[in-house]
Every structure is written in structure tokens, then in C-alpha cells.
Design a protein that fits this description.
heterodimer, A: 371 residues, PH-domain like, 7-stranded antiparallel beta sheet, 8 helices, 17 strands, extended, B: 267 residues, alpha+beta, 6-stranded antiparallel beta sheet, 4-stranded antiparallel beta sheet
Chain lengths: 371, 267
């Protein structure tokens, strides 16, 4: 079921919100609104379905009761801890909940007590995640690209019994970790650091072959061609994740939770980056076009996301590698091993890692002082 | 003060009409997209801003529905522009106008408000970041349900059968009894549905407000009216859940949005 926001069909819904809700400013700052409610009354009365169920007799009491039940039910209560249990730290956080195909970060308040670590949703009065401290075998902090923010964020990974991993995010992940370290020390429990986390990317874990390794990954829009009525093809941007592995380039479609585009590395012919309009919702963005060769001829796959120049660079390295090796004047940078023309390496240094030859190093300060 | 100067004072654009608070410290104009073609711009404080236009210090009011409708839709359209541009907004209701008070002008008052409420506004911005509001209304067909209940409840069924065999006066009393019982059963059923749907919807949303149900003009009855705060990339899962409810016999669902988070920003 898709939501609608057609301005005609949902005017009532808009009025409900716009006339009764929103941020409230204290009265002494704003123009007196005496009589203002009238503004909506005419219009609301004119629209069908606006009366409350007052006349409805049968359901009126029920409606009031139901809302009272819900209010009671969702009243924001603090987490109650058992007597003698002490809350050490409390902060906003979320827990990565995954069961079957349903995965989500669920928000709540993290409570670290002297016995447990708890994530509690106060509106729903629901314990989302809970573990006794002594059941935590190890912990580590990982970084991941976060969906709705552009930046990376840090998650706290807990190694629990039976090899289970729980993933938490807190407003201040490091502070939480420190507090947990202290608590564990107090309890006299030593935990193992987790130097290598098991595959943190559950998406990738589901499609990677044996021996396949990820070189690049990132959240990426992909231009999907869909059959439209009348035999036409309509193109729309869909959100997902692009992966470059040592075997293939593939795109994971978030909504369907599977790989819907993949090509072997050998097919990649070229890539370019340019700014294009992605439609009214997304606006102008940089787009990475990957040109690849398969049986019917050349084709293009378009992606949009962050750090496209890095993807472009990575793809171009794949494309140019065989050429580079065959050309005589190519050598590898002594620092990072990337291929580049010898003359460029000697005269300019390495474009990849910034390495410059000792001779060049000597010349640079001279040039700087003489100018 | 003469009438003339009063009029002039009122017409001077010495107040600020507020559309929303946005997640940016930019000072920028959005162009003449506001109510009655006013120029909409931002008044920043630190990393947030108020999206406003200059207006006379009196509320917009009209008895003409079409005029009001146009204003309301424009109010929403401006918020939509800011929402798309800056990602997170706290919408204000229609006709919120900040004016000059006690030696402090309207511009300063707006900034003061942002300053005094800064922590609280930031908190609300974090609460709604990456999320949108969706309206969910569940309806049922009371006739079909009453029919169904009468058929499935042995007590009701027996009563109905007995009515036919009773003399007129007694039949009337029996009918009263039947209606009372049916009403009770309906409410029980509605209770059960509400709790069931609530629990199912809750899984896919970050927060819920339960609104008053409303009378509908057709035969259906609204038994649930929710505002849901949903992660932008999760609304489809909510839609799938609603499909399941919509498929149930005698039930239908209305799903609206995405709305700016009107129901989740009032402190």
C-alpha cells in the first residue's frame, strides 16, 4: 500500500495537522490568535468526514476509552530497575534489530546499570534490548556509513554468548564504552577484544562467494529501468548499496534485499563522473556512469552517491591495469605499489599516495626558499 | 492615534510569519513563494533557522473557503520546499506570527525565540531526523461486522431466533436486549482490533499519536486514527503491514503522507 498526498483527497488530513499541530510558541511573542480557530471551522465543515463521532453514540465512549487506554499505555515512564540496581549511565541510542527479513535500527534510551545493559523505548514502554553484563564476552567499536546522515558513525558491537553479536549505537559511543569498561573491571570480568569482527555487513554476507573480497562499498542510488505501460521503459532512481569486489561490481537493492545488478570486472570498459539532474526529489547530483561490454554491445549503468571520485578512480584502475602492465615505461610506486609512468613518478611523485623521490624532495625546499 | 495611522501601522510589514524551523544555519532567500507571493527567507541562529516572511502584525483571516484553502496549501508548499532543501524541519501551525514586543523588534524576537528554545528545538530536530509523518486510518463496515457477529455468537443467534416466536410486546424487549448485547460485542471486537492493529503498526514506526476518530459520511466507521513517525526508508514496510489489514473482510485502510512531522514537534 502506497501513501497518498494528493492535495485534493487529503486536504482534511492536512488541515488536521496544520490547524491543530506543529511547534507551539508561547503566547506573549505572537500575534493574538483570538478568533483564529474560526478560520478552519468553515472550511472543515465544508469537507466531509470532519465531525468527530459525537453523534455516533455507539462508539463515542469506546473511542474515548481507547484513547485513554493508549495514553496510559504509552505514557512515557522511566525504566524501572530492580531495587539495589544502580543506573550508571543513560543516553539516547538505538539497537540494530534483525529478525528474518525485517531489520531496523530501533531507537530508545540506553541504560547502563551495575548489572545490565538495556535499551528501552519509553513511549512504548518496551525493552528493546537487554543483556546482563556478565554475558558480554567482548566488545569493539566499528564504523559504518549511516543511512540518513552523510557521515560515518560508530557502533558498539557486543559479542554475546553463542557467538551472537549485538549492535548498538549511542549518542556518545565512546563514553558508553568507557563506562562499560569500568563496570566490567569493577565486576572483575575480563573480556576479549574483538580485533576482527565477523562480517559486519549482513547484506554482503548473504551474497559474497568464497574468497570474494570487498574492495569498495557504499550507499548508492542506481538508475533502474522498469517496463512502463505501453511497452515503454521508465527509469527511476532506487536506493541501495554498490559493492566492488575482487570479482564483480554489483548493486544491492535495499527494498528487495537482493543483488539486482552485477557484472564481472572484465566487462568494465570505462567510467565517468558528471553532474546530472536526478529528478525533482533528489535534485542535481554527481552521477557515476559505468560503461561495460557484454554480448549485445556496450551498456551503461548509472549510480549516484557520495565519494564518486573514489569509485571512479577504483574502476579506472581496473580498466587501465592490463594496459599499464604492457606498456614499457610503467613502474610501480615504491610506497603504495600503484602503477604510473616512470617519468611522472620521478618528476611529480605518486598521485595515489603522495610519495616523492628523495631527489625531488631535496629540490622542493630549494624551490620554496628561492622563490 | 487616528484611523489612518492605525491602518498604516497595521499594513507595515512589521511581523514575521513562521512556516517552520529548519536544520541549517544558512541565511538565504527561497524566493517569492510564500502566502500571497511574499518573499520567504531564513532567520538563522547558530545551526538552525526560522523560515519566515514579513507580514503585517495581524493574523490572516477570511471567510472565503477558497482563500483559506490557498493559504493553507501555500503554507504546506513552503514547508515542503524547506524540507526538501534541508532534510529536517519542525513545522509550525498556520498563522503563527511573531511580532515586536517591549523594545525588541520582530526580527530580534524571532532570533530570541530560537535562542531560548535552542536546546529544545535541537532535541526535536534529532527526534524527527530521517523520518516523516504518515496518517493511518482504519475503517470497518459496522453492518457487515454486526452480521458476522450475530452469525458467530451463539448467544446472539439464539436471541434473534427467539424474537420471531415471541408476541409483539415481548419481541420488542427482546430486540432491545439483542441490540444492547450486539453493541457490547461490537465494542469488544473494536477493542480487540485496535490493540491488534496498534501492535502490528508499532513494529514499523518510531512513534505513534492516537488521534480522535471521525465520523464518515458513508456506511463505514473509523475505528482507528493514527499519526505515525516513520523512518523514510521504512514506510514501505508499514504499507505492507497495512495491506494485510486492508485485505481483511469488512476493513479498509487509508494511508496518507509523507507529511512533515506536525504531530511530533510540540515540545
Amino acid at each position: 500500500m502506497e501513501p497518498t498526498r494528493n492535495s485534493h483527497a487529503t486536504l482534511v488530513d492536512l488541515l488536521d495537522r496544520i490547524l491543530d499541530k506543529g511547534v507551539i510558541i508561547y503566547a506573549d511573542l505572537i500575534v493574538s490568535v483570538a478568533g483564529i480557530p474560526l478560520i478552519g471551522v468553515n472550511l472543515r465543515a465544508a469537507l466531509a468526514g470532519m465531525e468527530t463521532m459525537l453523534q455516533y453514540g455507539v462508539m463515542q465512549d469506546w473511542d474515548a476509552r481507547t484513547r485513554a487506554w493508549e495514553r496510559e499505555h504509552r505514557k512515557e515512564k522511566e525504566l524501572s530497575v530492580t531495587s539495589g540496581e544502580e543506573v550508571i549511565l543513560e543516553m539516547l541510542g538505538s539497537y540494530h534489530y534483525s529478525e528474518g527479513i525485517y531489520t531496523a535500527w530501533r531507537m530508545g534510551r540506553i541504560y547502563l546499570t551495575d548489572r545490565r545493559l538495556i535499551l528501552y523505548h519509553s513511549s512504548f514502554q518496551e525493552v528493546i534490548f537487554e543483556t546482563p553484563l556478565e554475558k558480554i564476552k567482548g566488545l569493539a567499536i566499528e564504523t559504518e556509513e549511516y543511512f540518513t546522515e552523510r557521515k560515518e558513525r560508530e557502533n558498539l558491537c557486543l559479542l554475546l554468548e553463542a557467538g551472537n553479536i549485538a549492535r548498538l549505537h549511542a549518542v556518545d559511543t565512546h563514553k558508553l564504552r568507557e563506562a562499560m569498561d569500568q563496570e566490567m573491571a569493577r565486576l572483575g570480568v575480563a573480556w576479549q577484544e574483538m580485533p576482527t569482527l565477523p562480517m559486519r555487513d549482513e547484506r554482503a554476507a548473504s551474497f559474497l562467494d568464497d574468497g570474494e573480497e570487498i574492495a569498495c562499498r557504499g550507499k548508492m542510488w542506481y538508475l533502474v529501468a522498469l517496463p512502463a505501460p505501453g511497452g515503454l521503459i521508465s527509469e527511476t532512481w532506487r536506493s541501495g548499496h554498490l559493492y566492488l569486489t575482487n570479482k564483480r561490481l554489483c548493486w544491492w537493492y535495499d527494498f528487495e534485499r537482493r543483488i539486482v545488478f552485477e557484472i564481472p570486472l572484465e566487462w568494465i570498459a570505462a567510467s565517468t563522473v558528471e553532474t546530472r539532474s536526478l529528478g525533482p526529489a533528489l535534485g542535481n547530483r554527481r552521477v557515476l556512469d559505468v560503461i561495460y561490454q557484454n554480448d549485445p554491445g556496450k551498456q551503461v549503468a548509472s549510480f549516484s552517491g557520495d565519494e564518486l571520485w573514489q569509485w571512479d578512480k577504483a574502476l579506472n584502475r581496473i580498466v587501465s591495469q592490463p594496459v599499464l602492465v604492457s606498456a614499457g615505461e610503467i613502474d610501480t610506486c615504491p610506497q603504495c605499489g600503484q602503477g604510473a609512468p616512470v617519468t611522472e613518478l620521478l618528476e611529480k611523485g605518486c598521485a595515489g599516495c603522495g610519495w616523492v623521490s628523495p631527489r625531488l624532495k631535496k629540490e622542493i625546499p630549494q624551490a620554496a626558499s628561492s622563490s | 492615534m487616528s484611523e489612518r495611522t492605525e491602518v498604516q501601522t497595521a499594513l507595515k510589514r512589521e511581523a514575521r510569519y513562521l512556516y517552520c524551523v529548519a536544520d541549517t544555519g544558512e541565511s538565504v532567500s527561497l524566493g517569492e513563494i510564500g502566502i500571497e507571493g511574499s518573499e520567504v527567507y531564513t532567520i538563522p541562529y547558530r545551526d538552525i533557522c526560522a523560515v519566515v516572511h514579513n507580514c503585517p502584525a495581524e493574523p490572516y483571516k477570511s471567510s472565503d473557503d477558497e482563500v483559506v484553502k490557498a493559504w493553507v496549501l501555500t503554507h504546506q508548499a513552503v514547508i515542503d520546499v524547506a524540507w526538501e532543501k534541508w532534510g529536517t524541519v519542525l513545522p509550525l501551525g498556520f498563522d503563527t506570527i511573531i511580532t515586536a514586543r517591549e523594545g525588541s523588534d520582530e526580527e530580534q524576537n524571532t532570533r530570541n525565540w530560537l535562542m531560548e528554545e535552542y536546546e529544545s528545538l535541537k532535541k526535536r530536530i534529532e527526534k524527527v531526523r530521517g523520518k516523516a509523518e504518515y496518517g493511518v486510518q482504519v475503517f470497518w463496515d459496522p453492518k457487515a461486522l454486526a452480521q458476522n457477529l450475530t452469525e458467530t455468537s451463539p448467544e446472539l443467534k439464539q436471541l434473534e431466533e427467539e424474537i420471531g416466536s415471541k408476541p409483539k410486546g415481548l419481541a420488542y424487549m427482546y430486540r432491545q436486549k439483542l441490540e444492547n448485547l450486539l453493541k457490547k460485542e461490537m465494542e469488544l471486537k473494536a477493542d480487540e482490533c485496535f490493540k491488534d492493529f496498534y501492535a502490528r503498526i508499532k513494529k514499523h514506526v518510531d512513534d505513534i499519536r492516537v488521534e480522535k476518530t471521525k465520523k464518515t459520511d458513508q456506511g463505514s466507521q473509523m475505528i482507528m486514527n493514527l499519526s505515525c513517525l516513520v523512518y523514510i526508508d521504512k514506510y514501505r514496510e508499514l504499507g505492507e503491514e497495512l495491506d494485510e489489514i486492508n485485505k481483511m473482510d469488512g476493513f479498509s485502510v487509508r494511508f496518507t503522507g509523507p507529511w512533515p512531522p506536525y504531530s511530533f514537534v510540540s515540545a
